[in-house]
Amino acid sequence: MNDYKNIKTFDELIDLEHGKIGTQNRNKYEEGSQMFIVSEMLKSARKEAKLTQEQLAEKAGTKKSYISKLENGKGNIQLSTLIRIFEQGLNKKIGLTFL
Description:
This protein is mostly helical. The chain has a single domain (about 10-90), classed as lambda repressor-like DNA-binding domains (434 Repressor (Amino-terminal Domain)), CATH 1.10.260. Helix content is about 65%, strand content about 0%. It has five helices and no strands. α3 (about 55-60) crosses α4 and α3 packs across α5 (about 80-90). The longest helix is centred in the middle third of the chain and has 25 residues, at about 25-50. The radius of gyration is 17 Å and the shape is elongated. The two termini are about 30 Å apart. This is Helix-turn-helix protein. One of its GO terms (cellular component) is cytosol. One of its GO terms (molecular function) is DNA binding. Keywords: DNA-binding.
């Protein structure tokens, strides 16, 4: 059982719950977090463009089921596919930041 008494920051909570940066558990957590962010951004951009999943899939050259998986954080995605979905399907550019 974790001791939360001395937790003062969100980073400390994440360290306690998922381990320090670089550990296997933390890496898994970070990967899931990033996929969640991408899935929410995709869903939001699609709705803003007033497109259905099927319409987006057609514009981006993929399948509705694939768009659905991505929006639900269930699928793996290649960077080239992500770029194609946003650029061809949604007319948006992607910017990447490496930390």
